[in-house]
Amino acid sequence: MDLIEDIVTPFNIQASEKGVDYDKLIAQFGCQKVLPAHIKEIEEITGKKAHHLLRRGIYFAHRDLEMILNTAKMKKPFYLYTGRGPSSAALHLGHMIPFILNKWLQEVFDVPVVIQITDDEKYLYRQELSLEQVKHFSRENIRDIIACGFDLNKTFIFTDTSYINFLYPNFLKMQKHLTVNQIFGCFGFNGSDCVGKIAYPPLQAVPAFSNSFPHIFRNKNDIPCLIPEAIDQDPYFRLTRDIAPKINYLKPAVLHAKFFPALQGLHTKMSASDENTAIYLTDSKKEIERKIKSFAFSGGGKTLQDHREKGANLEVDVPFQYLSFLMEDDERLDEIRQKYGKGEITTGEVKKDLIGLLQKLVEDHKVKKKEVTDELIDKFMEIRELDVKL
Ligand code: ATP
């Protein structure tokens, strides 16, 4: 399918089979490219080799990353803000991408993370979901998020409905400065959308202001915030950055990821809104094997002879793309890139590697998730001081 323009919104991703044109998106959204100099600086500041999601250009665009790096260089505090919209009981691999990077950034920069669970958003935006269902999903999603390895002493997880009294003052300030036209223009709503949908976006904005967390940042409103996320969330933070100076707050910095593609191809992202596009962290070994074998779109040749002659098109090949996101071993990935690209190995062989890697990743995750008790969830959600140097 050839589209004239890619569609990238928080609600819908549609592109050609080659996937989103990310350079075009940078120009369209007005953000900046993550450059090799940024990666080098992260390595110099932290003394650690950059995470492969950064090294491989999967986190590819930013706003004000330099401000965060300068803050870190001066050994001043900053914090990370990430989140999840609880639309399903289980997370899929695409949801893991921001959590993997946030956990790594927390570790190497030794900074706090706040994690917003937007139960209100999913209730309002998904007609078929009841508030009770969304609350149940929230708790299960939090279990998955904790299993990603966040540090209890430096992480605060909250649902919007439980933490609203702390968010409300900044929410009001944002609302006073935002017009309905701005919201309509930014998110494409119209007059027949429910009022809750239209009022929601500033609630996703306010965790980017440090005084929304007085128990962590002691009412300071000038602690810089970095938001690593996929680029579909950019509209929320374009609005936030627009309003922040008007209410005397710092603009948050953002770091954008490319989309972890749907099993069927790069024309859209893996999404819980369409179950067939996704591998869940609850899938069995068999399920993973079946999904990859039956659905993962191949960029290999149509016949074996064709494949041997021309090699695979790695740009559109879903198994290779998944390996690029998830395989830590650079040498092995490069070997696959070379051999598969030349047609020396087949899609079946690459899928076998991928199935093994995904089965291990999901099984390891299940073990860690089993260790996450209800008490531990309550501890992560407790309104408390964190181990933060201010
Ligand atoms: P879904 O339809 O699967 O629920 P979503 O975008 O509504 O998708 P959220 O939980 O709201 O999911 O997103 C949480 C974070 O995960 C955001 O930063 C979002 O950009 C990111 N994310 C979601 N899906 C993907 C994906 N396929 N690839 C990369 N990041 C993703």
Task: Write up what this structure looks like.
This protein is α/β, with parallel strands linked by helices. The chain folds into two domains: 256 residues, HUPs (Rossmann fold), CATH 3.40.50; 97 residues, Tyrosyl-Transfer RNA Synthetase (Orthogonal Bundle), CATH 1.10.240. 50% of the residues lie in helices and 12% in strands. The termini are far apart. The structure holds adenosine-5'-triphosphate (ATP). Adenosine-5'-triphosphate binds next to strand 5, helix 5 and strand 8.
The fourth-level CATH homologous superfamily of the largest domain is: HUPs
Tell me which CATH architecture of the largest domain applies here.
3-Layer(aba) Sandwich
Whole-angstrom Rg: 21 Å
Q: What is the third-level CATH name, the topology of the largest domain?
A: Rossmann fold
Number of domains: 2
Tell me, rounded to a whole number, the average pLDDT.
96
The proportion of residues forming helix, as a percent range, comes to: 40-55%
Which strand-content bin applies to the residues? 5-15%
The arrangement of helices and strands along the chain is EEHEHHEHEHEHHEHHHHHEHEEEHHHHHH
> Could you name the CATH class of the largest domain?
Alpha Beta
Number of helices: 19
The stretches of 5 or more residues where confidence is low (pLDDT under 50) are none
Structural class: alpha/beta
Number of strands: 11
Q: How far apart, in Å, are the first and last alpha carbons?
A: 52 Å
Shape: globular
Bound molecules: adenosine-5'-triphosphate
Keywords: Aminoacyl-tRNA synthetase, ATP-binding, Cytoplasm, Ligase, Nucleotide-binding, Protein biosynthesis
Pfam family, one: tRNA-synt_1b
Protein name: Tryptophan--tRNA ligase, cytoplasmic
GO biological process, one term: tryptophanyl-tRNA aminoacylation
